[in-house]
Amino acid sequence: MISGLEVAREVFRQVDASLAFEALAPVGRWREGGEVAAVEGAAGSILTGERTALNFLGRLSGVATLTARYARAVQGSGARILDTRKTTPGLRALEKQAVVDGGGVSHRGGLYDAILVKENHARLAGGIVPAARAALAAGGDAAFVELEVESLDELDEALAEGVQRILLDNMSADEMREAVARTRGRATLEASGGITLDSVRAVALTGVDLISVGALTHSASALDLSLLLDHHDDRRYIS
Fold first, then answer.
1. Are residues 98 and 158 in the same domain?
2. Continuous H helices in 21-127
3. If DSSP codes are grouped into helix, strand and coil, which group holds residue 238?
4. pTM score, two decimals?
Protein backbone atom coordinates (compact mmCIF):
# COMPACT_ATOMS: atom_id res chain seq x y z
CA MET A 1 0.00 0.00 0.00
CA ILE A 2 1.63 3.24 -1.16
CA SER A 3 1.30 6.56 0.64
CA GLY A 4 3.40 9.72 0.59
CA LEU A 5 3.96 10.18 -3.13
CA GLU A 6 3.09 13.87 -2.97
CA VAL A 7 5.53 14.30 -0.10
CA ALA A 8 8.27 12.67 -2.17
CA ARG A 9 7.36 14.91 -5.10
CA GLU A 10 7.71 17.97 -2.87
CA VAL A 11 11.11 16.79 -1.60
CA PHE A 12 12.48 16.64 -5.15
CA ARG A 13 10.79 19.94 -6.05
CA GLN A 14 12.49 21.71 -3.17
CA VAL A 15 15.86 20.24 -4.18
CA ASP A 16 15.49 21.15 -7.84
CA ALA A 17 12.29 22.50 -9.38
CA SER A 18 13.36 21.30 -12.81
CA LEU A 19 13.11 17.63 -11.78
CA ALA A 20 10.16 15.78 -13.32
CA PHE A 21 8.36 13.45 -10.86
CA GLU A 22 5.76 10.97 -12.07
CA ALA A 23 3.64 8.82 -9.72
CA LEU A 24 3.28 5.33 -11.15
CA ALA A 25 1.31 3.62 -8.37
CA PRO A 26 -2.18 4.48 -7.07
CA VAL A 27 -2.40 5.65 -3.46
CA GLY A 28 -4.69 3.56 -1.28
CA ARG A 29 -4.79 0.43 -3.46
CA TRP A 30 -3.20 -2.87 -2.47
CA ARG A 31 -0.43 -3.96 -4.84
CA GLU A 32 2.44 -6.45 -4.92
CA GLY A 33 5.78 -5.03 -6.07
CA GLY A 34 6.52 -2.85 -9.08
CA GLU A 35 7.67 0.71 -9.60
CA VAL A 36 5.88 3.41 -7.65
CA ALA A 37 7.39 6.59 -9.13
CA ALA A 38 9.87 7.92 -11.67
CA VAL A 39 12.13 10.96 -11.35
CA GLU A 40 13.86 12.55 -14.31
CA GLY A 41 16.51 15.27 -14.36
CA ALA A 42 19.99 16.04 -13.10
CA ALA A 43 21.51 13.03 -11.35
CA GLY A 44 23.09 15.18 -8.64
CA SER A 45 19.75 16.73 -7.73
CA ILE A 46 18.01 13.37 -7.70
CA LEU A 47 20.63 11.84 -5.42
CA THR A 48 20.44 14.86 -3.10
CA GLY A 49 16.74 14.25 -2.53
CA GLU A 50 16.84 10.46 -2.76
CA ARG A 51 17.20 9.46 0.88
CA THR A 52 14.77 12.03 2.29
CA ALA A 53 12.13 11.12 -0.30
CA LEU A 54 12.59 7.39 0.34
CA ASN A 55 12.42 7.88 4.11
CA PHE A 56 9.07 9.64 3.79
CA LEU A 57 7.73 7.15 1.26
CA GLY A 58 8.86 4.11 3.23
CA ARG A 59 7.51 5.37 6.54
CA LEU A 60 4.14 6.53 5.24
CA SER A 61 3.64 3.48 3.02
CA GLY A 62 4.42 1.27 6.01
CA VAL A 63 1.70 2.99 8.04
CA ALA A 64 -0.78 2.68 5.17
CA THR A 65 0.09 -1.00 4.63
CA LEU A 66 -0.39 -1.93 8.30
CA THR A 67 -3.66 0.00 8.38
CA ALA A 68 -4.85 -1.86 5.28
CA ARG A 69 -4.13 -5.18 6.99
CA TYR A 70 -6.24 -4.18 9.99
CA ALA A 71 -9.03 -2.89 7.74
CA ARG A 72 -9.03 -6.15 5.80
CA ALA A 73 -9.21 -8.14 9.02
CA VAL A 74 -12.47 -6.44 10.09
CA GLN A 75 -14.06 -6.30 6.63
CA GLY A 76 -17.78 -7.03 6.73
CA SER A 77 -18.10 -6.49 10.50
CA GLY A 78 -19.19 -2.86 10.32
CA ALA A 79 -16.35 -1.76 12.60
CA ARG A 80 -13.88 0.89 11.45
CA ILE A 81 -10.18 1.13 12.25
CA LEU A 82 -8.92 4.35 13.88
CA ASP A 83 -5.50 5.75 14.57
CA THR A 84 -4.48 7.46 17.82
CA ARG A 85 -2.30 10.43 18.78
CA LYS A 86 0.71 8.11 19.23
CA THR A 87 2.43 9.57 16.20
CA THR A 88 6.01 10.51 15.35
CA PRO A 89 6.73 14.08 16.53
CA GLY A 90 6.44 16.45 13.59
CA LEU A 91 4.83 13.84 11.32
CA ARG A 92 1.33 13.60 12.75
CA ALA A 93 -0.55 15.08 9.80
CA LEU A 94 1.37 12.92 7.32
CA GLU A 95 0.99 9.71 9.32
CA LYS A 96 -2.72 10.30 9.86
CA GLN A 97 -3.17 10.82 6.12
CA ALA A 98 -1.32 7.53 5.58
CA VAL A 99 -3.85 5.83 7.88
CA VAL A 100 -6.66 7.22 5.73
CA ASP A 101 -4.84 6.07 2.58
CA GLY A 102 -4.74 2.58 4.08
CA GLY A 103 -8.48 2.50 4.67
CA GLY A 104 -8.56 3.68 8.27
CA VAL A 105 -10.11 6.73 9.93
CA SER A 106 -8.26 9.60 11.58
CA HIS A 107 -9.40 9.79 15.21
CA ARG A 108 -8.60 13.44 15.93
CA GLY A 109 -5.78 15.83 15.23
CA GLY A 110 -5.02 16.90 18.77
CA LEU A 111 -6.41 18.44 21.92
CA TYR A 112 -7.94 21.30 19.93
CA ASP A 113 -10.54 19.51 17.81
CA ALA A 114 -12.10 16.90 20.12
CA ILE A 115 -12.29 16.10 23.83
CA LEU A 116 -11.24 12.67 25.09
CA VAL A 117 -11.62 12.24 28.84
CA LYS A 118 -9.17 9.60 30.04
CA GLU A 119 -8.65 7.98 33.44
CA ASN A 120 -6.39 10.72 34.84
CA HIS A 121 -8.91 13.41 33.89
CA ALA A 122 -11.66 11.45 35.65
CA ARG A 123 -9.53 11.06 38.76
CA LEU A 124 -8.79 14.76 38.88
CA ALA A 125 -12.45 15.61 38.36
CA GLY A 126 -13.56 13.29 41.15
CA GLY A 127 -14.95 10.47 39.02
CA ILE A 128 -16.62 9.56 35.75
CA VAL A 129 -19.80 11.56 36.34
CA PRO A 130 -18.24 14.97 37.16
CA ALA A 131 -15.69 14.45 34.38
CA ALA A 132 -18.44 13.72 31.87
CA ARG A 133 -20.47 16.73 32.94
CA ALA A 134 -17.48 19.07 32.73
CA ALA A 135 -16.46 17.78 29.31
CA LEU A 136 -19.96 18.03 27.87
CA ALA A 137 -20.33 21.56 29.25
CA ALA A 138 -17.01 22.61 27.74
CA GLY A 139 -17.51 20.81 24.43
CA GLY A 140 -18.26 23.91 22.42
CA ASP A 141 -17.11 23.47 18.83
CA ALA A 142 -15.36 20.17 19.47
CA ALA A 143 -16.07 17.53 16.83
CA PHE A 144 -17.01 15.14 19.62
CA VAL A 145 -16.72 14.52 23.35
CA GLU A 146 -15.57 11.02 24.23
CA LEU A 147 -15.29 9.41 27.65
CA GLU A 148 -12.99 6.49 28.45
CA VAL A 149 -14.48 3.83 30.73
CA GLU A 150 -12.78 0.84 32.32
CA SER A 151 -15.82 -1.12 33.52
CA LEU A 152 -19.45 -1.78 32.68
CA ASP A 153 -20.52 0.22 35.74
CA GLU A 154 -18.64 3.24 34.39
CA LEU A 155 -20.29 2.66 31.01
CA ASP A 156 -23.71 2.85 32.66
CA GLU A 157 -22.74 6.12 34.35
CA ALA A 158 -21.53 7.59 31.06
CA LEU A 159 -24.72 6.60 29.27
CA ALA A 160 -26.83 8.12 32.04
CA GLU A 161 -25.01 11.44 31.51
CA GLY A 162 -25.79 11.39 27.79
CA VAL A 163 -22.24 10.85 26.53
CA GLN A 164 -22.51 10.09 22.81
CA ARG A 165 -19.09 8.51 22.29
CA ILE A 166 -17.51 6.09 24.74
CA LEU A 167 -14.10 4.39 24.69
CA LEU A 168 -14.02 0.88 26.16
CA ASP A 169 -10.51 0.60 27.57
CA ASN A 170 -8.87 -2.85 27.77
CA MET A 171 -12.14 -4.75 28.09
CA SER A 172 -12.50 -8.44 27.32
CA ALA A 173 -14.55 -9.61 24.35
CA ASP A 174 -17.35 -10.69 26.71
CA GLU A 175 -17.37 -7.28 28.39
CA MET A 176 -17.48 -5.52 25.01
CA ARG A 177 -20.43 -7.64 23.88
CA GLU A 178 -22.24 -6.76 27.10
CA ALA A 179 -21.36 -3.09 26.60
CA VAL A 180 -22.90 -3.19 23.12
CA ALA A 181 -26.04 -4.82 24.54
CA ARG A 182 -26.37 -2.25 27.33
CA THR A 183 -25.76 0.71 25.03
CA ARG A 184 -28.47 -0.30 22.54
CA GLY A 185 -27.26 2.25 20.00
CA ARG A 186 -27.42 5.21 22.38
CA ALA A 187 -23.70 5.97 21.91
CA THR A 188 -20.85 5.19 19.55
CA LEU A 189 -18.57 2.60 21.14
CA GLU A 190 -14.82 2.50 20.54
CA ALA A 191 -12.63 -0.40 21.62
CA SER A 192 -9.01 0.25 22.54
CA GLY A 193 -6.08 -1.32 24.33
CA GLY A 194 -3.53 -3.83 23.06
CA ILE A 195 -5.51 -4.86 19.99
CA THR A 196 -3.42 -6.81 17.45
CA LEU A 197 -3.96 -8.23 13.98
CA ASP A 198 -4.63 -11.58 15.62
CA SER A 199 -7.33 -10.23 17.92
CA VAL A 200 -8.92 -7.38 15.94
CA ARG A 201 -11.47 -9.56 14.12
CA ALA A 202 -12.82 -10.94 17.39
CA VAL A 203 -13.07 -7.41 18.77
CA ALA A 204 -14.94 -6.24 15.67
CA LEU A 205 -17.44 -9.09 15.99
CA THR A 206 -18.49 -7.92 19.47
CA GLY A 207 -20.46 -5.18 17.73
CA VAL A 208 -18.36 -2.14 18.62
CA ASP A 209 -18.40 0.70 16.10
CA LEU A 210 -14.74 1.75 16.19
CA ILE A 211 -11.41 0.11 17.02
CA SER A 212 -8.43 2.35 17.77
CA VAL A 213 -4.94 0.94 17.27
CA GLY A 214 -1.89 2.91 18.35
CA ALA A 215 0.38 0.44 16.56
CA LEU A 216 -0.70 1.84 13.20
CA THR A 217 1.65 4.75 13.73
CA HIS A 218 3.97 3.81 16.60
CA SER A 219 4.91 0.30 15.42
CA ALA A 220 4.49 0.17 11.64
CA SER A 221 7.52 -1.16 9.75
CA ALA A 222 8.69 1.01 6.88
CA LEU A 223 8.10 -0.33 3.38
CA ASP A 224 11.44 -1.26 1.79
CA LEU A 225 11.80 1.04 -1.22
CA SER A 226 14.86 1.97 -3.27
CA LEU A 227 15.73 4.31 -6.12
CA LEU A 228 17.48 2.78 -9.13
CA LEU A 229 18.84 4.16 -12.40
CA ASP A 230 17.22 2.72 -15.52
CA HIS A 231 19.87 2.82 -18.24
CA HIS A 232 17.31 2.55 -21.04
CA ASP A 233 15.80 6.00 -20.65
CA ASP A 234 18.11 7.52 -18.00
CA ARG A 235 15.28 7.95 -15.53
CA ARG A 236 15.50 7.02 -11.86
CA TYR A 237 12.79 4.69 -10.65
CA ILE A 238 11.56 4.18 -7.10
CA SER A 239 10.41 0.63 -6.43
1. yes
2. 43-73, 92-101, 119-125
3. strand
4. 0.91
First vs last C-alpha separation in the chain: 12
**pLDDT (tens place) for every residue of the chain, 239 residues total:** 999 999 999 999 999 999 999 999 988 778 777 899 999 999 899 999 999 999 999 999 999 999 999 999 999 999 999 999 999 999 999 999 999 999 999 999 888 899 999 999 999 999 999 999 999 998 888 889 999 999 999 999 999 999 999 999 999 999 999 999 999 999 999 999 999 999 999 999 999 999 999 999 999 999 999 998 776 555 666 77
Choose the catalytic residue: 83, 95, 148, 209: 148
Verify whether residue 148 is a known catalytic residue: yes
Domain residues for the domain of 100 are: 75-218
Q: What is the CATH number of the domain that holds 48?
A: 3.90.1170.20
Query: Would residue 169 show up in a list of annotated catalytic residues for this protein?
Result: yes
> What three-state secondary structure class fits 147?
strand
**Tally of domains in the chain:** 2
108 and 57 part of one domain: no
Q: Is 96 a catalytic residue?
A: no
Respond yes or no: is residue 22 known to be catalytic. no
For residues 16 and 36, state if they share a domain.
yes
Q: Are residues 24 and 97 in the same domain?
A: no
Active-site residue, 85 included: no
Integer Cα distance of 28 and 164 in angstroms: 31
Residues 142 and 193 in one domain: yes
Cβ–Cβ under 8 Å, residues 237 and 35: yes
Contact between 183 and 155 (Cβ < 8 Å)? yes
